[in-house]
Amino acid sequence: MSQAKTRKVGNSVMISIPKELHPEINKEYIITRTKNGAFIMAPKISNPFSSNENFQDSPSLFELQAMKGWEND
């Protein structure tokens, strides 16, 4: 498990991501804080509804489990 420590830089609080986690340079993240004080950081993605491609629904967990079962037959 990696550890990081906060530090003050100007009017912001910074957290460095350890190099062994291989963070991408100049990648944007969305950060939320949970009720217990934990931070969740997820890569920011472009709006999936902004393209002209037709929407394709992904299979449900039940369908994926069923497909996995069929492969074993």
Word description of this protein:
A hairpin with a 5-residue loop joins strand 3 (29-33) and strand 4. This protein is 15% helix and 25% strand. The chain has one helix spanning 61-71; strands at 6-9, 12-15, 29-33, 39-43. It contains one helix and four strands. With 73 residues, it is of the alpha+beta class. The strands form two sheets. A two-stranded antiparallel ribbon has the order 1-2. The protein has a two-stranded antiparallel ribbon with strand order 3-4.
Task: Give a brief rundown of this model.
The chain has 73 residues and is of the alpha+beta class.
Q: Strand pairing plus helix content: what structural class?
A: alpha+beta
Shape: elongated
Distance between the termini: 39 Å
Percent helix: 10-25%
Query: Count of DSSP helices?
Result: 1
* Average pLDDT for all residues: 81
Strand count: 4
Estimated radius of gyration: 19 Å
Largest sheet: 2 strands, antiparallel
Instruction: State the order of secondary-structure elements, H for helix, E for strand.
Output: EEEEH
Low-confidence stretches: none
Strand content: 15-25%
Strand arrangement within the widest β-sheet reads: 1-2
Defining key terms:
73 residues, alpha+beta, two-stranded antiparallel ribbon, 1 helix
Topology:
Layout: E1 6-9, E2 12-15, E3 29-33, E4 39-43, H1 61-71
